[in-house]
Design goal:
heterodimer, A: mainly beta, OB fold (Dihydrolipoamide Acetyltransferase, E2P), 2 domains, 3-stranded antiparallel sheet, B: about 400 residues, alpha+beta, about 20% strand
Chain lengths: ~140, ~400
């Protein structure tokens, strides 16, 4: 059952939830990473926009992605906004991952501690923070043969 | 697509520019008080009274407040653009060129506030003015200023650049600031100190980020014709441009080889009368050190990933700073990292002073042309060429 708009805004108060990205955050509640895809031309885009930047169609469909990809950007926060369970005395890693669905389609989230570096393969997992699921990447376990 | 059309070229001028100087502390003055001081100085420098200004352009305080503070009787055009500062320059120049006003007063007041330094919260007036969100934002993002840190990591990954490359930007700025009485930080900075500085967001440390300050710059923009009747040599606006690409979100830009800076370079080259070989002084914006490295490369001084090596090649041991071909300095006022976080107004003011021969110990002998590239990668890359009349 879909969350009421007011409840969605309250549960994701640390994010800027609006009409265009509400479906993405509703997806998080089900531990689904929903990225906008155009129903007409098939192009993915992120962050969520009201029309497809490729063909201007309004037939936008928030669609689940596999959550696999490659680390494109990596930072380690030595200080930052207060967040439950985040202790900056151990630098807090944030990665931008280029998703396998489309070249240049990227999603930013934290990442499990480990030997993270730009160029590594990662996969998506979820943790719980302040009562809502939070996407987190970790080093890909599978080895494709 | 870029165009070489530039009917405004050399028709509009800076008649004057002033600064209050900058301080890295919570002064007991308001942001408006700093803006007012700089504006009054600029009007006096150009022999202008309250009735002589009919255009206003600044962000903080907004134009209506500044008009009331200075008692300017009649304003026919005003705008409150977002920073950085070429937004103000291009808006005011276009307004004068179009006849919306004759003489525009333009200002930028830098001010220590919670968005640029947590230290500002020690001032109860500044803390009281801030509307804090009930819930802190998520740290799981590279939006806003964090984006530059993210692409700094990518820059190191792609080109094998080192922290020393970033450090040269900071040291160049600090050495230059020592000759600038307006600068907030003037004590020497060594590479050792840079490398040992507090890490804020790896890979960027304290000295890679602009220094939050109190202080203001102000400018008079009018027609070149009118400026010639004022006391100081006019500085002509040769070309002013902005640049942005479709994928302009911090984590979505195509890459280090295609973002706002590349649009600026193509457009400014097409519209201006000179480029790097003809520039007597260069101002690569340095709100974060990575931005300056990228500008040095993207305007064409060297190839991608080579800015560090380029700076070493043209490093002048005596001044402990870059002196291209023995004379052309980069950010001679100390830039955002050492003069203060002015969102580019300090770079523009220093360029005007260099071309007017008013730059004191920092004066580039006979400087006639300045190339400025304020702003970063995502939604605020800008360019400006200035020529002494």
């Amino acid at each position: 059952m879909a969350e009421a708009d007011e409840e969605l805004l309250e549960r994701f108060a640390s994010h800027s939830v609006d009409r265009d990205n509400a479906a993405h955050f509703r997806g998080r509640l089900n531990r689904q990473l929903l990225i906008n895809r155009c129903g007409d031309c098939g192009r993915w885009h992120h962050p969520p926009k009201p029309v497809c930047p490729g063909c201007w169609s309004t037939a936008i469909e928030p669609s689940e992605v596999d959550g696999t990809g490659e680390v494109h950007l990596l930072i380690r926060l030595h200080q930052g906004p207060p967040a439950p369970g985040v202790d900056y005395s151990t630098p807090y890693p944030v990665v931008t991952v280029e998703l396998d669905e489309q070249q240049g389609l990227r999603f930013t989230a934290t990442v499990e501690e480990g030997d993270i570096a730009i160029g590594q393969r990662v996969e998506l997992d979820w943790i719980e923070r302040a009562g809502v699921p939070v996407p987190i990447f970790r080093l890909a376990r599978e080895v494709s043969l | 697509m870029t165009s070489d059309r530039n009917p405004m070229k050399n028709a509009i001028a800076f008649a004057g520019a002033t600064t209050t100087g900058f301080e890295r502390r919570n002064t007991t003055r308001s942001q408006a008080s700093w803006a007012a001081e700089a504006c009054i100085d600029a009007m006096r420098q150009c022999d202008l009274g309250p009735k002589d200004v009919d255009g206003l352009c600044g962000s903080w305080p907004p134009a209506n407040e500044l008009q009331a503070i200075l008692g300017l009787p009649e304003i026919t055009w005003f705008e409150n653009p977002p920073v950085p500062f070429i937004n103000h320059v291009s808006a005011a120049a276009a307004a004068v060129f179009a006849g919306l006003c004759e003489v525009a007063l333009v200002w930028h007041a830098a001010y220590r506030q919670p968005w640029n330094t947590a230290g500002s919260l020690k001032d109860p007036f500044r803390a009281a003015a801030e509307n804090f969100p009930a819930v802190a934002p998520s740290p799981d993002t590279v939006m806003h200023a964090v984006g530059y840190t993210a692409w700094a990591s990518r820059y190191m990954h792609e080109f094998g650049a080192t922290k020393e490359d970033f450090g040269l930007i900071a040291i160049n700025d600090r050495s230059n600031a020592a000759r600038n009485p307006a600068a907030a930080l003037t004590h020497p900075l060594t590479m050792q100190e840079y490398l040992e500085a507090r890490m804020i967001r790896w890979p960027l440390c304290l000295f890679d980020m602009d220094v939050a300050v109190d202080g203001a710059d102000a400018f008079i923009v009018t027609t070149a014709e009118r400026a010639r009747d004022m006391p100081l040599p006019p500085v002509l606006i040769n070309a002013a441009v902005h640049g942005m690409v479709a994928n302009n979100e911090e984590d979505q830009i195509d890459g280090l080889a295609h973002h706002g800076q590349h649009i600026v370079v193509d457009s400014l080259k097409a519209k201006s009368d000179f480029w790097i070989d003809g520039a007597d002084v260069f101002f690569p914006y340095d709100g974060f050190s990575i931005i300056a490295l990228a500008w040095i490369e993207n305007v064409g001084y060297c190839g991608a990933g080579e800015a560090g090596e380029f700076m070493r090649q043209y490093w002048d041991a005596e001044s402990n700073s870059v002196r291209l071909n023995g004379k052309v300095p980069f950010n001679p006022h100390g830039g955002s990292l050492s003069e203060g976080a002015t969102q580019g107004s300090g770079h523009v003011r220093e360029a005007i002073h260099q071309l007017q021969g008013l730059a004191g110990d920092r004066q580039v002998p006979g400087a006639r042309t300045a190339l400025l590239t304020p702003g970063g990668f995502f939604f605020n890359a800008q360019g400006l060429t200035l020529i002494r009349d």
